[in-house]
Amino acid sequence: MSQVERSLKGEVVVLTGGAGGIGTETARALAAAGAKVAIGDLDGDAAVKLAASLGEGHYGGTLDVTDYAGFEKFVDEAEAELGPLFAIVNNAGLMPLNAFDEEPREITELQINVNLYGVINGTQIAMKKLKPRRRGHIVNIASQAGKTGFPGGATYCATKFAVVGLSEAVRNELHGTGVGMTCVMPGVVDTRLGAGLTQPGFVDLVKPSEVADGIVRGIVEDRPEIWLPKLTRAMIPVIQMLPAKVRDRMSRAMGTDKTLADPDHAVRAEYEKEIAG
């Protein structure tokens, strides 16, 4: 455990992609920890409804993380409603699955815009707000697909590798400023994004509530990284030290090469259709 531990009581936390899956559970966990949560989502009505369900002292609204000016405006509105920003959780993301050479160009660009530029936007906005105050925290939701390339999700992996690198670089830029950075790296999570994926039997499916608890823990304890499930924190770095051909053979032997490449398309059909739309 980090030596730093702080209370979130009364602190204002902006949460992107907050109206479903990991976001919803994170909003509840933050509220339970005493934070005032500003929930942003493309589905603004759902964000408003969720904020109301948390009780008084929370805020919900429409947020497109790819729109920098709109993101800034949302944060300003949240501060006007709730008080000075303490943390941003860059959670919004999507994961369409395709063979890379068959991926429509607009789907490639959409993933880069949401999964990477959305995180860059939120991180830069948070830094500009928090550094002069010399306190606060930034949480970027990456993935273990940001440490290992999985066939079937090449662009998704590329965006998450970028988020991991971004978070590490910014964490070191923030050293001595009083602002912390946490990068969260879950495996397959039981949400619509992770529905129908081929999950190796030796790794547990991660619950959204576990990710939410990890996010809160990352802020409260100022942790640089959160790995879920915990065993992967030791397993994946060790595997990455092996020669590439050995890693590839291990992936095929364990079946992890099928995680994104061989999903249940019937289960994912509605989610993939929404993204394409």
Features:
alpha/beta; Rossmann fold; seven-stranded parallel β-sheet; 14% strand
In short:
With 277 residues, this protein is α/β, with parallel strands linked by helices. The protein is built from nine helices and seven strands, in the order βαβαβαβαβαβαβααα. The protein has a single domain (12-231, 243-276), classed as NAD(P)-binding Rossmann-like Domain (Rossmann fold).
Shape: globular
Q: What is the correct CATH architecture?
A: 3-Layer(aba) Sandwich
How many individual domains?
A: 1
Unreliable segments of 5+ consecutive residues: none
The ordered string of helix (H) and strand (E) elements is EHEHEHEHEHEHEHHH
> Mean pLDDT, nearest integer?
94
Number of alpha- plus pi-helical segments: 9
